[in-house]
Write a structure and sequence with these properties.
about 55 residues; alpha+beta; two-stranded antiparallel ribbon; 4 helices; flat; Deoxynucleoside triphosphate triphosphohydrolase SAMHD1; dGTPase-like
Amino acid sequence: KVFNDPIHGHIDVHPLCVKIIDTPQFQRLRNLKQLGGCYFVFPGAAHNRFEHSIG
């Protein structure tokens, strides 16, 4: 699978990685805030664990 990144261009992801990313356990990381309660003080700090796990 190929993803388009505005900075790095096209990124080819290995099929095994795509299978792992598509699991419910990995997708659950989208709902976990990377910075915890900082989101309430700094609304722009909306990073999640999914983004950090992808790299």
